[in-house]
Structures are given as structure tokens and as C-alpha cells.
Design goal:
There is one protein chain. By secondary structure, the chain is mainly alpha-helical. The protein has 30 helices and four strands. It has a domain of 202 residues. The strands form two sheets. The chain has a two-stranded parallel sheet with strand order 1-2. Strand 3 and strand 4 form a beta hairpin. Helix 14 packs parallel to helix 16, helix 15 runs antiparallel to helix 16 and helix 26 runs antiparallel to helix 27. The radius of gyration is 30 Å and the shape is globular. The two termini are 24 Å apart. Pfam families: TPR_19 (PF14559).
């Protein structure tokens, strides 16, 4: 369906005025257009339906032709045609169109009109057709429906009640009605209807509907029993096995859940629901990223799955580097957060550090609080201002201890594109890689320039939240996406000798900086999307973490914990390095994750 015919939409009252004038002039086509526009804005307004009835009378037998269905039909036209079909004695066809409109815009009360909620409609509909209509509604809306959107579906629930009153023993109708009731938060009613449906007509689908209703009502043991009975009806429907596993896992019964997944995989090792559920549950059990990498490989190798799954995104959500940028560690980033929390007051004019901070942190401090004096003694161990290995393209130089970008600024177009793309969270590493393709055409010089000359935050909810809660996070996000852009540079080059590999490896061994983390994340992402790169990336990550651990014996390494999280996200990392990474990351993980989760919640609230 199309949203509309004109960006300059008029209020419904004005559309009705124009429709009345057109009717007086005998211009039925124009009148129909105005009525459709009014319906799209006020689908339950009585005046709209009054004008529609007058238009139908004027159009006579050809009234339906005033609202034709085409390849891209305006939603108001679809709804108007639905009401005319009902008035012409074809309510089932009208309901089909209203359900289509609901799928297009679930928040609109398309069906909240007298002919849909009238008890006599149920007498005119075959119970099988009523059940199919309710199932179409269920397929068109989220599961569950968000609370603010439920009122728009009230008419369909009334239709279900009326149909069940007329056909109290129809199993399919009772089950479909239960599915709708469950989606709109009527769990107890859903259980009653599903139980009646199973008693009237025992079936696999009936037991599945009952299992879902019981699960929504919090009756887990009974829900699993119902789903087990569904398996008895059809042992070859492996989706039910996955449903049982998911239900058990949601209530902490992982071993039982995995046993059901294993039963499904024994029947069909490539069954998508079972594969996704298996990897998600195994990751829940032991936290080994190998399960998620295997799932990502399965998704890449099976692009034509029967439906979209969210298991990989669910497992990566809120986890450092798997689903989001890790917040910066260290005294200076904490001081900057305090400065913005206190509205640039309350800390005095100086911060004393024990070791030189990352240059990106100092640049962020000068941006957030130009008058802040950062006092840095000479480091006890290896100087973090010196590259850990030689580099052909230094990022920074120091003038009297102050870091200055050693590369020219990127073009305004490069900055604009990065500003539009950068974000502190993503679904999972392959999704971040795919999203960064928008930077593929940027020059190498621009991508490197963006690392040391990150653009200003965007004038959006994202920019406002980051600027007022954690200013360092915008800089880190920009650097991450610039490095992801480097992954798309000259992708026709084989990995081993590629420019992207060489540049990213130089970046991780340059001066100790937030760019080190961003570049290492890009390498880890490369390993996720390219199995051939995994051994090389795993060795590189292990070497970089080992170097950080060695340096940490003599001085603080602010990026060390983040490097540990990056190691835990790396495919095919050796067990010894993984053990070191777990020990290093474990103590800080809860505090770090909680901080960014609060920040992202604030961002989602601002967007809503």
C-alpha cells in the first residue's frame, strides 16, 4: 500500500468539505479521493462514513470502481473499498482488506466501526473464514502487541467473541481467537479459548496455541506439556521442538532445552529454527563466542531461511564489542563524564594522572572542557606515546606533550557520511560490517583522517544523548566506524596481502589509543565475516593482548580491559589467550555494560 497521494495532507475535516463539494458537482472521482484521504486520518469518524455512504448511493453499481485496487494502492482507498464491500453483502472480503490495512499501519483503528463489531456479522461468516481472518490479523501484528497499540485491535477481539458465541465448538476458531487474545495481553482469556478448542478438536495446532497461551499466563509446566502433546500429533514438525526448547530456556532449564534441540537436529541438522536456538542456548550456557560465530556462518550460508531469526542479535546485545562499543576506561574519561554530569562544574581545573592518557582522550578533554589542565608525569614503564611497533603512517605527533593529529583532516563529504552512520551499538559484528559498506567509496586518506579528526556529533537524539552523558563515546563510535570502513577498502585484494589488513595491523601497534581498540575490532569483524582470515586475526589479537598484559606489569594500560573483551569476541582464539582475557575482563564487565545500557536506554527514550 501507499502512504498517501500528496505530501501536503489536509485535515480530515477539510477533506470532507471538499468531498461534499465534489458530490454536489457530480465529480464522484474527486469525492472518492477526498473520502479516502479522510479515512486514512480518521478511520472511525462517523462523518467520514456518512459521506462514504452518500458516495456509494451516487455511484450505484459502479461505486466499487471509485476505489480500485492497484499495484500501489493508497491505504485510505483500501479501507473505503472494504466498507463498500461489507455494505454490498461481502463482509468477508471487506475484512480481508481491513486486515491488510492493519498490517500496513497496526496503530490505526481500521476495524473500529459498527459493522465489524455487530453480533450479527458472526452469523453471516463461516466459522472457518472467521478463523482465517483472525489468523491474518495475528500474522499482521507484533507478538506481543505493544500496549499502546492494543486498542486499535479491540474490534477484532470483539469479532472473535461474537464468532465464538455463534460457533462455540469450532476448534480452529477458538485457537485463532486465543492467538489474538494472547497478543493483546488477554492471557487468561487466551488460555480459556485454547483449552476449549483442544477439547472440541484435539490437534497439533490447537496444542501449540494452548502452549503459547499457557506460557504467556506464566504456567510454564503446563505449557511444556501442551507442546509435548503437539509433538505427539506431528513428530516431524521440528519448529515445536524449538518452541519447547525456548520455553524451557527462558525459565532456566537449559539442559532440558538443549535435549529438545538435539532431538530436532538429529532429525534435520540444517533446520533453521533448531540451529539458531541451539547456538543461542549453548552460548547462554558457557559464553563461548564460537557458538555465535558458527551461527553467523550458518546465517551467511543459508540466506533463504524460512523466516528471520533474532537469536544472534539477542546474544550480542549489550555485550562489549559483540553488540556495542565498550566505554572508555581510565581516570580522564571518568572525569569527562563527571564534567558533563555536573554541567561542566564541580571538578576544579586540573586532573592528575599516573600515566599519559590516550591521545584521543586528551583531544576529547580539550573539546569538552578547554580549560581543564591534565597533569601527566613521565610513565614508569614503556611510554604509551610511542608506537609499540614501527609504523609507516604515524597518526599523532606530540608538541610539548600535547597530541596533535599527524594526518590531514578528511573531506567534508567523508565527515558527513561518517556522522550519518556512526552509532555506539549494532546487532552483531556481521551486521556492523554490512552497515559500513556506506563508507566503501571513501579514500584511504579520508578514512585515516577521520580517526584523528572525528566529526562533531550529529544534531540528533544520538548526538544529544552522547554529548550530555558520555562525550568520549561519540569519538570512540566514530573511530570504530571509520575502521569498519577500512574493511571495505579494496576488498578485491586477498586478505593476506591486502591494504586493509596492513593498515589495520599498523593501527593496533601505533601509540596506545582508542584507535587501537577500534582497529582491533575491525580485524575481529573481518574474522567473523571471512573464515579464511580467522587464524591470522586470532594470532594478531593474541599478540596485542599479550603485549598489553606485559606492559601492565609496570604501568596502567587503560585500554587493557577493552582489549580483553575484543579477544573474547575473536573467532578461533587459542585457549590460553582466552583464559587470560576472561580473567582480565571479568571484574569490570558488569560495571561497563551497565553504564552503556543506561545510556542506550536514554537514547531509545529520546527517539520514541
Amino acid at each position: 500500500m501507499a502512504e498517501g497521494t500528496d505530501d501536503r495532507a489536509l485535515p480530515a475535516s477539510e477533506e470532507l468539505t471538499l468531498a461534499r463539494r465534489a458530490l454536489v458537482d457530480g465529480d464522484l472521482t474527486s469525492a472518492a479521493g477526498h473520502v479516502a484521504a479522510a479515512l486514512a486520518q480518521a478511520p472511525t469518524l462517523p462523518e467520514v462514513h456518512e459521506i462514504l455512504a452518500r458516495l456509494a448511493a451516487a455511484g450505484g453499481e459502479d461505486a466499487l470502481d471509485l476505489f480500485p485496487l492497484q499495484h500501489h494502492t493508497f491505504v485510505g482507498t483500501v479501507v473505503a473499498r472494504a466498507h463498500l464491500l461489507a455494505a454490498a453483502g461481502r463482509p468477508a472480503e471487506g475484512l480481508d482488506l481491513l486486515v491488510a490495512a492493519t498490517g500496513h499501519t497496526p496503530t490505526a483503528d481500521w476495524a473500529g466501526v459498527p459493522w465489524v463489531t455487530a453480533p450479527e456479522l458472526a452469523d453471516r461468516l463461516d466459522p472457518e473464514r472467521s478463523a482465517r481472518i483472525l489468523m491474518q490479523v495475528c500474522a499482521a501484528v507484533p507478538d506481543p502487541v505493544p500496549r499502546p497499540q492494543r486498542a486499535a485491535l479491540a474490534a477484532y477481539l470483539t469479532l472473535a467473541r461474537n464468532a465464538i458465541t455463534v460457533h462455540p465448538g469450532h476448534g480452529l476458531l477458538l485457537g485463532a481467537a486465543s492467538a489474538l487474545a494472547r497478543r493483546v495481553g488477554e492471557a487468561a482469556l487466551a488460555v480459556r479459548w485454547a483449552e476449549r478448542g483442544v477439547r472440541a478438536e484435539p490437534s497439533k495446532i490447537g496444542e501449540v496455541w494452548l502452549g503459547y497461551a499457557l506460557r504467556s499466563a506464566g504456567r510454564v509446566r503446563e505449557a511444556v506439556a501442551a507442546l509435548r502433546r503437539a509433538v505427539g500429533h506431528d513428530p516431524d514438525d521440528l519448529s515445536v521442538y524449538a518452541d519447547i526448547a525456548g520455553t524451557l530456556a527462558d525459565h532456566g532449564r537449559l539442559d532440558e532445552a538443549l535435549s529438545w534441540v538435539d532431538r530436532a537436529l538429529a532429525r534435520d541438522p540444517s533446520f533453521d529454527c533448531a540451529v539458531h536456538t541451539a547456538h543461542r542456548l549453548r552460548f547462554q550456557r558457557d559464553g563461548d563466542v564460537a557458538h555465535l560465530v558458527a551461527l553467523a556462518d550458518f546465517v551467511r550460508d543459508h540466506p533463504d531461511d524460512t523466516h528471520e531469526h533474532g537469536d544472534l542479535a539477542e546474544c550480542c546485545r549489550s555485550r562489549p564489542w559483540l553488540g556495542q562499543v565498550a566505554p572508555a576506561e581510565g581516570v580522564l574519561p571518568e572525569a569527562l563524564r563527571q564534567i558533563v554530569a555536573d554541567d561542566h562544574g564541580g571538578l576544579g581545573s586540573a586532573v592528575l594522572l599516573r600515566t599519559p592518557p590516550p591521545p584521543s582522550a586528551l583531544r576529547t578533554a580539550s573539546w569538552i572542557s578547554p580549560g581543564l589542565r591534565v597533569e601527566v608525569p613521565e610513565p614508569d614503564g614503556p611510554d604509551p606515546r610511542e608506537p609499540r611497533r614501527s609504523t609507516t603512517r604515524p597518526l599523532w605527533r606530540y608538541d610539548d606533550g600535547v597530541p596533535v593529529p599527524a594526518l590531514p583532516a578528511p573531506t567534508p563529504e567523508a565527515a558527513r557520511r561518517l556522522r550519518e552512520l556512526a552509532h555506539p551499538a549494532w546487532q552483531h559484528p556481521p551486521a556492523a560490517y554490512d552497515a559500513a559498506v556506506g563508507l566503501a567509496t571513501l579514500d584511504l586518506a579520508d578514512l585515516l583522517g577521520l580517526l584523528v579528526h572525528p566529526p562533531e556529533p550529529p544534531p540528533t537524539a544520538l548526538g544529544r544523548v552522547l554529548a550530555t552523558q558520555d562525550p568520549s563515546l561519540w569519538i570512540r563510535s566514530a573511530q570504530v566506524w571509520a575502521c569498519l570502513g577500512l574493511l571495505h577498502h579494496n576488498t578485491d585484494e586477498p586478505w593476506a596481502g591486502s591494504t586493509r589488513r596492513r593498515v589495520l595491523r599498523e593501527l593496533i601497534w601505533d601509540v596506545e589509543d582508542w584507535i587501537t581498540e577500534a582497529a582491533l575490532f575491525a580485524l575481529v569483524t573481518a574474522a567473523w565475516v571471512d573464515p579464511g582470515a580467522r587464524p591470522d586475526v586470532a594470532r594478531t589479537v593474541a599478540a596485542r593482548l599479550a603485549d598489553a598484559v606485559e606492559v601492565a606489569q609496570s604501568r596502567q594500560v587503560p585500554i587493557a580491559v577493552s582489549l580483553a573483551h575484543l579477544a573474547l569476541a575473536t573467532p578461533e582464539l587459542d585457549p590460553d589467550t582466552r583464559a587470560v582475557a576472561r580473567a582480565l575482563a571479568g571484574a569490570a564487565q558488569r560495571r561497563r555494560g551497565g553504564r552503556l545500557r543506561r545510556l542506550l536506554r536514554a537514547l531509545r527514550w529520546r527517539r520514541s
